[in-house]
Design brief:
six-stranded mixed sheet, 8 strands, 263 residues, alpha/beta, two-stranded antiparallel sheet
Length: 263
């Protein structure tokens, strides 16, 4: 599932650069604008829902707009789309009479290229370039948004469909100002009632920073025992050969765990 987070991150980068959906549809594609610093995308599965957050909310807004255009509003539909179209986020270039993929440059591109180049048995396969979408879908479901509220307030986020989480979380005194995607997801999780049972699975594009690790180490024991937290990351997969750690900005805000998850 790291491929879903990587795909959303790289799709936003392509659309931000192109101003439209040409990476999926070719020339004349519908226009979309927006995007932020593209630092990180994280996804969290909560029961039947897939929640998405980014360090920069502008990236979240753009990713939501992309899926709205594609009428993708369920985790199953998104996974199918990523499996079918993930290699279209890579650029191609002419080499004689052939077109080849431009070698991946960023750590996120390297990760997605390696994951997309593995078959179901973990063996290597050649990357294929799927046909462009002929038209936008005419049926489907749209994703929804969820805005964070102060600790202990606001409605609960949906536990089905695709939910894009935006807003600011409250940090501990003395921590920084830069917010990280997984801590936004954790803040949203605090509003899910204990009656909702299931497995939590978190995926992303890069290694968790020390601040986020400390926050999660403190928060997870406070989460109801009915939950099981899985920290699954592409760089933990031994099949990934060329993972490059990406730098995190300094001054990370540490979520105030005691306020969001009181005893």
């Amino acid at each position: 599932m790291n491929q879903v987070a990587l795909y959303l991150n790289l799709a936003a980068a392509r659309v931000k650069a192109d101003g439209d959906l040409r990476y999926l549809m070719g020339p004349g594609a519908p226009k979309i604008s927006g995007g932020g610093n593209l630092q990180e995308t994280q996804i969290l599965f909560v029961r039947d829902a897939l929640w998405v957050a980014n360090n920069d909310d502008a990236d979240t807004v753009l990713q939501k707009a992309i899926l709205e255009k594609l009428l993708i509003g369920t985790p199953e539909a998104l996974v199918e789309h990523v499996e079918a179209c993930q290699t279209r986020v890579f650029k191609r270039m002419k080499l004689g009479t052939k077109e080849i993929f431009v070698p991946p440059g960023s750590p996120a591109e390297i990760l997605l290229a390696e994951l997309a180049g593995l078959d179901d048995a973990g063996g290597k396969r050649d990357l294929a370039y799927p046909l462009a979408l002929g038209a936008l879908p005419v049926a489907g479901k749209k994703p929804v948004g969820y805005a964070l509220q102060p600790p202990g307030t606001g409605t609960a986020p949906a536990v089905s469909g695709i939910v894009f989480v935006t807003g600011n979380y409250e940090g501990t005194v003395g921590s920084g100002d830069n917010e990280h995607a997984e801590q936004k997801l954790l803040a949203a999780l605090s509003r899910v009632p204990d009656s909702v049972r299931g497995t939590l699975a978190l995926y992303g594009c890069k290694r968790q920073c020390s601040v986020c690790k400390s926050v999660f180490d403190k928060a997870i024991p406070k989460v109801a025992s009915s939950y099981r937290y899985l920290n699954c990351r592409a760089h933990d997969d031994p099949a990934i050969e060329n993972y490059q750690a990406q730098a995190h900005p300094s001054g990370i805000k540490a979520l105030d765990v005691d306020r969001y998850f009181p005893a």
